[in-house]
TrEMBL record:
It is an enzyme of class 1 (oxidoreductase). GO terms for cellular component: mitochondrial matrix. SUPFAM superfamilies: ALDH-like. It catalyses: L-glutamate 5-semialdehyde + NAD(+) + H2O = L-glutamate + NADH + 2 H(+). The lineage of its organism: Eukaryota, Metazoa, Ecdysozoa, Arthropoda, Crustacea. Pathway: Amino-acid degradation; L-proline degradation into L-glutamate; L-glutamate from L-proline: step 2/2. Belongs to the aldehyde dehydrogenase family. Its EC number is 1.2.1.88. NCBIfam families: D1pyr5carbox1 (TIGR01236). Pfam families: Aldedh. This is Multifunctional fusion protein. PANTHER family: DELTA-1-PYRROLINE-5-CARBOXYLATE DEHYDROGENASE 1, ISOFORM A-RELATED (PTHR42862), DELTA-1-PYRROLINE-5-CARBOXYLATE DEHYDROGENASE 2, ISOFORM A-RELATED (PTHR42862:SF1).
């Protein structure tokens, strides 16, 4: 019976099997041909979040950087194999809180330049792939240190002004998360070698080595996280890949600083090419190249679907089947049980829904509250919203600022207008909006009687939270609604003190979120602590910030090295 066989018995029997043909073998020996990298120890500690209190040195450095960035319009080239290019298709990045203020000038790459960058990256691949892992690790550790020291204030200032983040939101993203991605990925890349295949026969050596993918990777990044741009472009690079990085128009300046900082850390020219471009022009260039090996995308569902379809339509062109990694939107929930701590629910929801004006893929945008707690929770939310300061990011008391651009403003405003007109929705607080100077939309709380209204189902990606009040006796039906009423499955949170309920909810909502929180808000995943990504329409769930993510960027090769010479081709049973 298999259960009675111990591991060592199995081992022994397979060893025996290897030795059966010994008489036909002449045993040789020698060192392995392919050497495995020797890991260097990395002290994995998340980058501490600095306080930026009045009078602190980090605050004065940041204030200088903010001043500098506000009085400059940085000219940002396309960079291919270390060479700078300009085209006539000129664009500007402006400040979301003051749309007349330009902070960067850049231009779109033409199809010809995109072809050039593909060729340049394939050329760079030849030598980059050969650079030993420990050298790559050194580069990434140096980059992590440059992020947390020399470039910290520049990264934060450009993220604040260009992407509309408050000081705290910029710090957890452009400084801490970016440094964490660089350092943790260096460690994760080394740890991939911890798995090696079984070696049971001393005359045979089995091993696995990690190669970069053959071809180039296209990294297409969103506006809302500087660190995500850096991770999309550089996590593949540490595995030996070459990358075309198309940054978002509205995160251009911070992403360019990341690109230059990585060069300073020692990434050779051409390994990552910085190619601002019009979205579909870039999409068509990469998906019609036979050398596309993967797309590393973060952004909205429609863009990812479009790219996926382009790859499908060109599938017979590719030398390797491209891997499609996409992290997309969410319709994230807070589900409150009648046993929950009200004060904690209120504060967590105010942060989860309204920090960075709800422009986190993980932002809470639907809230399920039992009728027994609604009055208290509603009062708490409204009171908190009254206390939130909405303004420019240069005012350090601002809780949240404007949304990213006019397109986002109009989209979010259309949901609020819908709510204002729908008979089954009440605007409880907020709703005020004004785009005359910046794209300001005040945090808005809605209450709907229809849990399947568009405001409860579609990603709004703005500071709009909708509450649905359920009957305390209808917990099961409401959990069913949470799970089934949207097509997304990114993040979600349950709040309760009743442990039995929490266990039940964790089971019932298992597939509803890639990142599931118990008594914590739906936002704020930390690299290495809460690996990130969702299922269903929310993405391919490759868990950025974990070792699993790096597996997408390697094409492992299994190697069997034999130390024997066969002395004949026949098998033992053929001996006579
Ligand atoms: N799941 C996650 O980890 C995660 C993280 C951040 C943001 N997001 C999602 O990203 C979205 C917000 O970001 P966004 O507004 O920048 O998204 P977006 O889809 O508009 O743009 C993302 C990137 O794709 C580019 N692009 C647009 N059309 C393209 C095309 N046809 N071909 C190639 N590239 C194209 C854009 O220029 C940008 O660089 C939200 O839906 C949010 O939920 C998800
Ligand atoms: N990692 C971030 C979300 C990134 C998406 O925008 C969080 O967990 O809040």
């Amino acid at each position: 019976m298999i259960s009675s066989i111990t591991k060592s018995t199995l081992h022994l029997s397979s060893t025996k099997r290897f030795y059966v043909g010994k008489s036909f073998l002449r045993c040789l020996s020698g060192p392995p041909i392919i050497q495995e990298p020797v890991a260097q120890p990395i002290n994995l500690v998340n980058e501490p979040i600095l306080g930026y209190l009045k009078g602190s040195s980090e605050r004065s450095l940041l204030e200088d950087a903010l001043q500098h960035r506000q009085s400059t319009c940085e000219e940002i080239p396309i960079v291919i194999a270390g060479k700078e290019y300009w085209t006539d298709d000129v664009h500007y990045q402006t400040m979301p809180s003051n749309h007349q203020k330009k902070i960067a000038k850049f231009c779109y790459a033409t199809p010809e330049l995109l072809q050039k960058s593909i060729s340049a990256s394939l050329e760079a691949r030849k030598s980059w792939e050969k650079v030993p892992l420990n050298k790559k690790v050194d580069i990434f550790l140096k980059a992590g240190d440059l992020v947390s020291t020399k470039y910290r204030s520049q990264l934060n200032a450009s993220t604040m002004l260009g992407q509309g983040k408050t000081v705290f939101q910029a710090e957890i993203d452009a400084a801490c998360e970016l440094a964490d991605f660089l350092r943790f990925n260096a460690d994760f890349a080394q740890r991939l070698y911890d798995y090696q295949p079984v070696n049971v026969d001393p005359s045979i050596r089995n091993s696995v080595r990690h190669r970069g993918l053959e071809g180039f990777i296209a990294a297409v990044s969103p506006f809302n996280f500087t660190a995500i741009g850096g991770n999309l472009a550089y996590a593949p690079a540490i595995m030996g890949n070459v990358v075309l990085w198309k940054p978002s128009d509205t995160a251009m300046l911070s992403n360019y600083i990341v690109f230059r900082l990585m060069e300073e850390s020692g990434i050779p020219s051409g390994v990552v090419n910085f190619v601002p471009a019009e979205g579909p022009t870039f999409g068509r260039a990469i998906t019609t190249s036979p050398h596309l090996s993967a797309i590393n995308f973060t952004g909205s569902v429609p863009t990812f679907h479009w790219l996926w379809m382009q790859v499908g339509q060109n599938v017979d062109r590719f030398r390797n089947l491209p891997r499609l990694v996409g992290e997309c939107g969410g319709k994230n929930y807070h589900f409150v049980h009648s046993s929950a701590n009200v004060e904690h629910v209120v504060n967590s929801t105010l942060r989860g829904a309204f920090e960075y004006s709800g422009q986190k893929c993980s932002a809470c945008s639907r809230l399920y509250v039992p009728s027994s707690l609604w009055k208290q929770i509603k009062e708490g939310l409204v009171e908190g919203m009254k206390q939130m300061k909405i303004g420019p990011v240069t005012d350090f008391d601002t809780f949240t600022s404007s949304v990213i651009d006019e397109r986002a403003y109009n989209r979010i405003a259309s949901y609020i207008k819908h709510a204002e007109q729908a008979p089954h929705i009440e605007v409880i607080a907020g709703g005020h909006r004004d785009k005359s100077v910046g794209y300001f939309i005040h945090p808005t709380l809605l209450e709907t009687k229809d849990p399947r209204d568009r405001v409860m189902v579609e990603e709004i990606f703005g500071p709009v939270l909708t509450a649905f009040v359920y009957d305390d006796n209808a917990v099961d039906e409401t959990l069913e609604l949470v799970d089934s009423s949207t097509s997304f499955a990114l993040t979600g949170a349950v709040f309760a003190e009743d442990r039995e309920f929490l266990a039940q909810a964790a089971e019932r909502l298992k597939m509803s979120a890639g990142n599931f929180y118990i008594n914590d808000k739906s936002t704020g995943a930390v690299v290495g602590q809460q690996p990130f990504g969702g299922g269903r329409l929310s993405g391919t769930n490759d868990k950025a910030g974990s070792p699993h993510y790096l597996l997408r960027w390697t094409s492992p090769q299994a190697i069997k090295q034999s130390f024997n010479h066969l002395t004949q081709f026949k098998y033992p049973h053929m001996e006579k």
